[in-house]
Every structure is written in C-alpha cells, then in structure tokens.
C-alpha cells in the first residue's frame, strides 16, 4: 500500500463505505477486523485504507456503526481494483457480515486544500 503525502491541489479518488448498526456488533467487528479488512488491504493500487467505529461526543448513538475510506490515485485505479480478483473477493465477503440494505458506498474526487 502506497502512503505518500500529497501536495496542495493534488487529488485522489476515494471510496467511502458506511455501515449501519448491526444486530450483533461484536460479531460484525470480529469479522470486519479479521476477514474483511484483510481482504480490503489486498486491493491493487490501494493508496490508503482506514476504518473506524463511529461515536458522538455526547455519547448518544450515531447514525452509522462503521465508516471505512479507501484511497486510490485515480478513478481508473479504484474501478480496476474493484473489478480485480481481490476486489471481487472483498465484495463477495460483504454478505458474510452485513446485508445489502445495511451499507452504502460512495465515490469522490478528493482534493487536498491545505
């Protein structure tokens, strides 16, 4: 995984995955940490991968359970990674810990402002 600093104005392409609260948070986290995250780190041309369980400062329940961000140098790199055998394995694994209606994925061009 390449993890180099970006210069101001340089852009990258980001996949953001947002997961709803599961019925069994510990089971979800164990699978995510030990299986899904490992699969995601194998995506070709992945520049950076970070994930975390969400929380709110006041301790109330946030809208979502977990958010993951995966960064690539370009849209083409991201799409190729998702279509690779590694991407297909990660996509197929989603059914092992959540349901299609319990997560969202979005893509964005990210530009470093400072």
TrEMBL record:
The name this protein goes by in its record: EthD family reductase
Alphabetical list of InterPro entries matching this protein: Dimeric_a/b-barrel, EthD_dom
SUPFAM superfamilies: Dimeric alpha+beta barrel
Alphabetical list of Pfam families matching this protein: EthD
The organism's taxonomic lineage, starting at the top: Bacteria, Bacillati, Actinomycetota, Actinomycetes, Pseudonocardiales
Source species of the chain: Saccharopolyspora mangrovi
Domain EthD residue range list: 23-100
């Amino acid at each position: 995984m390449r993890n180099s600093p970006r210069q101001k104005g340089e852009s990258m392409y980001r996949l953001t995955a947002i997961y709803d609260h599961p019925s069994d948070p510990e089971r979800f986290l164990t699978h995510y940490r030990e299986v899904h995250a490992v699969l995601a780190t194998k995506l070709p041309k992945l520049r950076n991968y970070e994930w975390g369980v969400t929380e709110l400062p006041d301790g109330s329940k946030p809208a979502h359970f977990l958010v993951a961000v995966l960064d690539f140098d370009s849209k083409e790199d991201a799409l190729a990674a998702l279509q690779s055998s590694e991407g297909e394995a990660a996509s197929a694994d989603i059914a092992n810990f959540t349901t299609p209606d319990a997560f969202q994925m979005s893509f964005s061009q990210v530009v470093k402002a400072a």
